[in-house]
């Protein structure tokens, strides 16, 4: 397989490259997230470190997963349960904590390949929640049959939540997807747009806030 190894530690990258090559894989290494995003499309498998110098690996993971179903195993020193859950929910097929044995990595890669490649989710053209109709194709929203004018970012935010109802989107993920900058998490831009959606639709339940986690599309009361 063509394996993209995203790792900024030269010594670890060299050791993993040797091991992967010995097992018959072709390895391409990226030390930066920007290079990983550029190269992921040509890989059969991605091994992704989270502690990258130019971007948090979790953000890189979400960006890759939005456009590709390539198998991804996170290999990282982050051991907190919260990080493991975030990694898996963000699209990783497996999560391996450093230090690890090469044999375990190879076994996990084989297990992921056996499970097969996940299909990319295909969003429905129309999402209905109570009396709210969200037309993703035409970028229109109506409540009780009445059109509701939204700003571009308000619609993009609602559409992101509506594409996979029930899926929780983290603040950084939303800011990265809509504003193109996860560092805006220190601002109130997202909160203002959520409030705008609730006010303009007259449906405060439409966007649910999960404190410390993110947002999801609500369900009609």
TrEMBL record:
Gene3D superfamilies: 3.40.50.2300, 6.10.250.690, Winged helix-like DNA-binding domain superfamily/Winged helix DNA-binding domain. Residues 124-219 bind DNA. Residues 2-113 form the Response regulatory domain. The modification 4-aspartylphosphate is found at residue 49. One of its GO terms (biological process) is regulation of DNA-templated transcription. GO terms for molecular function: phosphorelay response regulator activity; transcription cis-regulatory region binding. Residues 124-219 form the OmpR/PhoB-type domain. The keyword Phosphoprotein applies. GO terms for cellular component: cytosol; protein-DNA complex. Keywords: DNA-binding, Phosphoprotein, Transcription, Transcription regulation. It comes from the Bacteria. PANTHER family: REGULATOR OF RPOS (PTHR48111), SENSORY TRANSDUCTION PROTEIN REGX3 (PTHR48111:SF72). This is Sensory transduction protein RegX3. It comes from Actinomadura litoris.
